Every structure is written in structure tokens, then in C-alpha cells.
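User: C-alpha cells for this one?
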Amino acid sequence: MSILFDVNHAGHVHFVKNAYRKLTREGYDCLIVASDKPLVYKLLKEYKLPYYPMGSIGKSLIAKVFKLVVHDIKLLFYCLKHKPKVVLGIVSIRGSHISWLLRLRSIVFTDTEHATKQIALFKPFTTEIHTPNWFVKNLGPKQVRYSGFHELAYLHPDNFTQRSEVISMLGVESGQNYFILRFVAWDATHDKNQYGINLKTKRKILKMLLPYGQVFITSEYDLEEEFKQYEFNIPSSYLHDALSYTSILVSEGATTACEAALLGVPTLYVNSLSLGYITHLEQQHDLLYHLTDQDAVLSKLNALLNSPNLKGEWKEKRDKFVKTQQDTTAYIVDLVKT
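Assistant:
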């Protein structure tokens, strides 16, 4: 049986990679189509996953509408040639459209309640919509809830093992503290009118952290000159290894904040936008802090820096929580086989 994975974001590469490999080992014919978005093609090459390039999705609204039509047409011809039986992806709009047209099984995952435009574009066409059980919206009879997170497709203990060589790649001494800052570009549709860490606070955070250890910055945009010396310079496929060893993460990005929390890293998520999984991790499991006030960010960071056994405490909370969650890769594999 042929299975098509639709990839539209760097995080989607991580989401499908283990399922792709497992199903391929079991004899399934697995295919990947991928959009040209930051790091997507680079990650697929680093993981040695073959893919069909769909190209850019556009930046302006008009460009995105035009590109969606182009992508639908390209995917139609690709599916007519390769004849997949199942099309699976996170917020797979083009995948749901072509699956509906060709009467294929379409499996769409989503964990972002506020992505209303994207949901409206795939919901009428897909066969089924899979959401974590903490997802606050009711998407109707097609919705199937499961106990897990997208990120546990690649960060569940059954799927992830720290690679210690990342420490030497970073130039950090073994056992030395280091910190990661994650900045976003604010150009996504759902980022409109939202905000995170202002420039003044970024400078204060850096000044606060440097006496305690090295600081690394990962950014979606071209960093200001004053921060460039702290930018990550390791292969993108090692990001989660680096994240797993960090002492504290401060992130404007929700996905990175969630990943760090699920790795047992003390995490500050600084963004005016709230999501179901952020609220769940904060209020139910105390695995991260969601902050919007700039002074509150500095105050909470100071408190964490002065907390004894911080990493041990977080790891204990994380281990207890993950035991209650499904391995999302195993869930995907079982799903396509049914």
C-alpha cells in the first residue's frame, strides 16, 4: 500500500519521519511531498528522506491563494502517477482537496484551535481529523481525539535518545549550563496582531543569562547584528538534542516551548497568543510558564535561575506526565494500517 505524507513546515518533517521509516521497513511504499518553507528541504535532506518539492506557498494572501491552486494541480498529477491509498499530514489542505477529488482516505492532524482559516479549507474535504484530547474545539463527526501531542511523534522516549555529541558541537563544556532563546518572525497568518519579546527585554534577558552560562539563539528571521554572535551553528537535525540539554528555554514560538517542556526543560513561553496545548502543559502539569508582560518575563527568569535542583524537578514532572501519553508515531502507524 502506498502512503503519502504531506509536509508544510519544518515541524512536520519531525512529525512524519519516524512513521515514514517504520512503515517503509514494514514494506509500505511511503512518499513525501513538501513545501519550500524555512528548513523543510534542509531537514529532509539531513534525515535522508526522499521528497517531491512542491515549491513556495507564497507570502501575501493573493499569492497564497494562487499557490494553493498551483499546489492542488501539482499534487493531483503526482497522485495520479503514484496512486497513494492514504494521504496524511498536519493541516494538509491540498492533501484533503486531492483526496476528496480522487476518493482517497485523507487523515489530517491539527492542534491549533485558532487556525480557523486553515481548518475551514480542509474540514469539508478530509475523511478524518485527529486532534489531541486537550484540543478545545469541537470539529464535528470527523474529529477523532487521542491522548498525545504532535511533538511526541519524535520526542516520546520510545522515539528520542539524546545525542551527546551536540555538546561538543556547541562548544560547551560537559556539565556546563547553557540557555536557548527562540525568536519568531511574526509573519504567519495566526501571528497577525500578536507580540512576544521586545528588543529591550531581549537585551535584558541576554545580560541576565550570560553570567550563568553560554547563550544560543535560534531565530526565524535574520537576527539583529548585536545578537548574531549567539546564533546557533549546528545542523538543524540536532536542534532537539541541543534543546534536551539546555538549562532554561525562553521562546516566542509555541512549538519550541512545547518541545522543551516535553523534554523536561524549564520553559518560558512569551507570546500574546494562547493555545490549548500551552494551557494544558502550564495549568495541568506545571511544565512551562506562559507570559506576556515583559517585566514578568524577567522576574520569572530570575526566579528560575535561583531555583535549586531546577532541571531535576522538571525532569521528574515531565517523566510522570509522558507516562500518561500515547506514542504519537505508534498512533500514526496503527492509524494508516486500519
